[in-house]
Amino acid sequence: MKQSLYYIPTLKEAPKDAEVKSHRLMLRAGLIRQTAAGIYTYLPLGYQVIKNIEAIIREELEAIGASELLMPALQPKSLWDESGRWADYGPELMRLKDRKDREFCLGPTHEEVITEVVRDIITSYKKLPVALYQIQTKYRDEMRPRFGLMRGREFIMKDLYTFSATEAGMNAWYEMVKEAYSRIFKRCGLSTKIVASNTGEIGGIEAHEFMVMSEVGEDTILYSKSSDYGINIEASDQKEGDMAPDGSGPLFTGKGIEVGNIFKIGTKYSIPMNAYYQDQAGEKKPVQMASYGIGISRTLMAVVEEHATEDGLIWPESLTPFDYHLIPLNEVDDAVMEVYHKLKENARVLLDDRDERPGVKFKDAALIGIPKRIILGRDFKDGRIETEFYGEKSTQSLEGFLASL
User: Fold this and answer.
1) Residue 198 CB contacts under 8 Å (≥ 6 apart), including other chains
2) What is the pLDDT of residue 146?
3) DSSP label at 113?
4) Structure pTM?
5) Angle between helices 21-28 and 296-307 (to 10 degrees)
6) What is the pLDDT of residue 80?
7) String of b and e for 139-152 (b: at least 16 CB within 10 Å)?
8) In the prediction, which pLDDT does 151 show?
9) What share of the chain is helix, strand, coil (3-state, %, to 5)?
């Protein structure tokens, strides 16, 4: 892709209301642009990283047997009345009416819709288990949208729902998805801590959150430094300095960015919404459900917060929007284009073909953070190039470099 054609509106300064590093950098690097409070457009560079995150999620979920579908964002009040959540959910639910005065909401989550989708189909134990997921925009009328993509009124989310015949089956899926989540976040370059949490608006039996430890996180967690124990302080009557329940040592407090959550729902939705199946003995029983979410746009924010410097982004290799940033310092002639087309045979390449000074090109390259840069400078005419891969600089022959690809 030629950079002159790829829309990357970089900024010299971030808006004054951008309070945290990730928000400042995503605006300056041209990843996002605010439309209203808590509502953002994902510009080409940012959206490519979003798609890379989604690809990792799809690979890991399909590997454990989950199938992808797409449900409507617009949901009728009648479904939420069945579950009882229309009255219970609170002011965060985006409610609206159509021209015939029928009430709807813009979905913050899809437990009601997915239960309605399967309840007339999964009528026998022979059709269980089932795992269905989607990637979709969600809506919540947050009172205080803040920190860019941390807490928005519109955001991209992956939600997965499992349906099992027994509680043991639900528990098995829960552990399987928990492990898949750990792989997903590791592949995205994030170190996460799994902590017990409240079931909140989703409800159910048990819940856990995947936290990226960060001073800008909105959640406070208690955790042990000597074991995997952790719990959201909102779900705990413990305090810092108390002994961890597993006996591993004292508890410490820290801030975390919640990037994922998982819930054992049990029969919270299946009983009131009449999602029953017939077991082997012919007895009618409610389906056991679990719900699992990943905040994809928030994962993007957490990656930037964890990996970037104040001067620019540094993408993990798994998420980088381009494999190479090709930066010629002189005229973009046939020799430059030959290198560009050769690289494109095996990689995604961004060619900075803009009519700009080298200083401008280098500053923008550092800002947008493609970690492998190839500079065609004064020695290019002699067949030598400069490379900067994850901060390590070297000079080498063009022929040798291309042969190594």
Assistant:
1) 207, 232, 234, 235
2) 81
3) H
4) 0.95
5) 100
6) 97
7) bbbbeebbbbbbbb
8) 87
9) 30, 30, 40
**288-295 and 276-278 beta bridge pairing:** unpaired
Look at residue 303 and give its three-state secondary structure.
helix
Q: Measured at the alpha carbon of residue 300, what is the angle toward residues 39 and 202, in degrees to the nearest 5?
A: 70
Instruction: Return the residue matching tokens 């002994």.
Output: 243
Reported as half-sphere exposure (CB side, CA atoms, 13 A), residue 23 has a value of: 20
Question: pLDDT by residue (tens digit) across 133-191?
Answer: 999 999 999 988 888 898 899 999 999 999 999 999 999 999 999 999 999 999 999 99
d(CA 345, CA 115): 46
From first CA to last CA, the distance across the chain in angstroms is: 19
- Name the helix (H) or strand (E) containing 56: helix 44-63
What local confidence, expressed as pLDDT, does residue 265 receive? 96
| Residues written for the chain | 405
Question: Quick one: which of 313, 310, 287 has its CA closest to 300?
Answer: 313
From 305, 403, 386, 293, select the one nearest 346 (Cα to Cα). 403
pLDDT at residue 200 in the model: 81
For the chain, the average pLDDT equals 95
Q: What tokens appear for 287 in the block?
A: 């389906």
DSSP sequence for 328-390: ESS---HHHHHHHHHHHTTS-EEE---S--HHHHHHHHHHH--SEEEEE-TTGGGTEEEEEET
Q: Which letter does DSSP use for residue 312 in this model?
A: B
- Cα(356)–Cα(330) distance, rounded to whole angstroms? 9
Q: Among positive and negative, which fits the CA dihedral 152, 153, 158, 161?
A: positive
Is a pLDDT exceeding 90 seen at residue 293? yes
pLDDT digits 0-9 by tens, 80-91: 999 999 999 999
Output DSSP code: residue 244.
Answer: P
Structure tokens at 35: 């439309």
User: What pLDDT is stored for residue 263 in this prediction?
Assistant: 96
Q: Could you tell me the strand order of the sheet in which 384-389 lies?
A: 349-351, 324-328, 372-376, 384-389, 392-397
Supply the pLDDT for residue 404. 86
CA distances from 335 to 3, 57, 352, 380, 394 (A): 18, 39, 14, 9, 21
The pLDDT value recorded for residue 56 is: 98
